[in-house]
Amino acid sequence: MPKAKGKSRRHKYSYNLNRKRLYRSARRRAAPRIACSHIRHAWDPHKSVAQNLAEMGLAEDPNKAVPIPKKLLGMEVESDGQQPGKKIVRKPYVVNEMELDASLPEKKSNTLSRDLIDYVRYMIQNHGENYKEMARDEKNYYQDTPKQIKRKINVYKNFYPEEYKNFIASLKPEKMEVQ
């Protein structure tokens, strides 16, 4: 395949281009990445980070927000009796929404694939607790060792304990009929 035109020619370095200024201006324009959706919606791009956080009632610097008392450090310093000026919180709903989200119980996102569940149920149904026999089974496509199969079964037990108990209970009548 032929080369693209112009790629083989040597590029000249431009001495007149100020790369530092270009880099700095690009950095200055970039908005901060905000993970929390409540903060993202209340964010004003025309204000600084400190101003935005102060309006929401959040601290920019945790060391200044919750200072360590001088008495704990072993130094006793007399205070002037003046407290630093309280800032006005114009967007208190941001903190309230964040507290509400934090108080909700965490969702369990642990699930197993349908294939793995079917594989584990097949192995238990046909071989019971004999892991060596399971390793030799023709459905063991990934050639799992007995320990790997045991680990997969234990994961299934931990993720779906009720389903596992019902499955084992449904197997016991079948085994009694065979004997």
Automatic annotation (TrEMBL):
It is found in: Nucleus, Nucleolus. Its main location: nucleus. Keywords: Nucleus. GO terms for cellular component: nucleolus. Pfam families: Nop16 (PF09420). GO terms for biological process: ribosomal large subunit biogenesis. PANTHER family: HSPC111 PROTEIN-RELATED, NUCLEOLAR PROTEIN 16. Belongs to the NOP16 family. This is Nucleolar protein 16. It comes from Setophaga kirtlandii.
